[in-house]
UniProtKB/TrEMBL annotation:
Residues 105-308 form the Nucleotidyltransferase-like domain. It comes from the Bacteria. It comes from Paracoccus siganidrum. Residues 14-66 form the DUF6788 domain. InterPro entries: DUF6788, NTP_transf_8, NTP_transf_8_dom. This is Nucleotidyltransferase. Signal peptide: none annotated. The lineage of its organism: Bacteria, Pseudomonadati, Pseudomonadota, Alphaproteobacteria, Rhodobacterales.
Length: 336
């Protein structure tokens, strides 16, 4: 059976998640900083990106601006205490062996969360989501499951993005630009769903469910285009919040673990040719989650499987094809 974290670690994770959900959003990404130049005083929003401190201009000092910043500081006094408590929980989780993120990825996740990406419906999918089930399911991930990918996949419903009548601030493209991401070329000039980091191998991709033909769609709330894919509507229906144990914690959104497991069975069968290594990884993640969920949440797993199978013969064929190569997982699902 999967190895588990301690009861203390599980409680600390859910305390962190609850604290993050209760935390009110701030207008500023970092700390208001006063800078004097040439006899004039200016205010900047200072925040950290990895090991680098960056500043965004707020405005020239004035009684009105000073009063606004003072109100912000007064409101942050208890917020500072809450942040310290969240940081304590993060330290506890790390001491208990929870997975962390490298500073660049952690800062990117925090910046995207601060811009409202996850509040506005963005859901982390792929390996980054799988790693975050560590806290939700109290699973200790081994070396083969914990390998971190440079790719970050974020999915959202196009219809939700249109209906929200709200937008990320600062714009997602600006956040990505701050981290040296540039648009990757696509078949549609002037439109892209992939952003590649110029200083490394990191890739951020935006996805959305396809209701009909696959192709590029606009996500107005996020201000980006997304690649529409079949079966994704099943994956990101009813997502759950998750806490990233980075600095004082980052609140994001991930698919339900039982849907993630069944979706991986479908995706694994769709992969061909050069993607066979990814298909094997899909099956390994599905098998790991199926084993854990069959023990802890068998009803949720059975419902997710029934939902997928009810969506048509092609869905059932893909699930069956993957399970034919996973006899232990097939037996667990059959026994539900």
């Amino acid at each position: 059976m999967p190895d588990r974290h301690s009861a203390l670690a599980h409680a600390a994770y859910h305390d962190l998640l609850r604290a993050l959900r209760d935390e009110a959003a701030s207008d500023l990404r970092g700390t208001p900083t006063r800078v004097e130049r040439g006899g004039r005083v200016y205010w900047y929003d200072s925040y950290r990106v990895g090991a680098e401190v960056r500043k965004h201009y707020i405005g020239e000092d004035s009684p009105e601006l000073a009063a606004r910043i003072a109100r912000h500081r007064d409101a942050r006094a208890p917020a500072q205490q809450r942040r310290r408590e969240r940081a304590r929980l993060v330290r506890l989780l790390r001491a208990e062996g929870f997975l962390g993120l490298d500073p660049t990825t952690g800062s990117l996740m925090a910046a995207l969360a601060g811009a409202g990406v996850f509040r506005l419906g963005g859901t982390i999918v792929g390996t980054h989501a799988f790693r975050l089930y560590e806290g939700e399911l109290n699973l200790r991930l081994g070396l083969d499951q914990s390998a971190q990918t440079d790719d970050l996949d974020i999915a959202s419903f196009e219809r939700l993005s249109l209906a929200l009548e709200d937008a990320a601030a600062p714009p997602v493209q600006q956040v990505l630009g701050d981290f040296a991401f540039t648009p990757a070329p696509s078949l549609e000039p002037g439109r892209t769903w992939r952003w590649r980091q110029t200083s490394g191998n990191a890739l951020v991709e935006f996805l959305t469910p396809a209701f009909g033909e696959e192709g590029l769609r606009d996500l107005p709330a996020l201000g980006v285009q997304a690649q529409a894919l079949h079966h994704l509507n099943y994956l990101i229906a009813g997502p759950i919040p998750a806490a990233i144990p980075y600095r004082s914690g980052v609140l994001v959104q991930v698919p339900r673990p039982e849907r993630y497991a069944i979706h991986k069975l479908i995706v694994a069968d769709r992969r061909r040719g050069e993607d066979r290594a990814k298909a094997a990884k899909d099956r390994a993640q599905a098998a790991f989650l199926i084993e854990a969920l069959a023990e802890d949440r068998p009803d949720d797993l059975a419902e997710a499987l029934e939902d997928a199978r009810a969506r048509g013969p092609r869905w059932r064929e893909r699930i069956a094809a993957s399970l034919a190569r996973m006899p232990q997982s097939a037996a667990l699902l059959e026994a539900l």
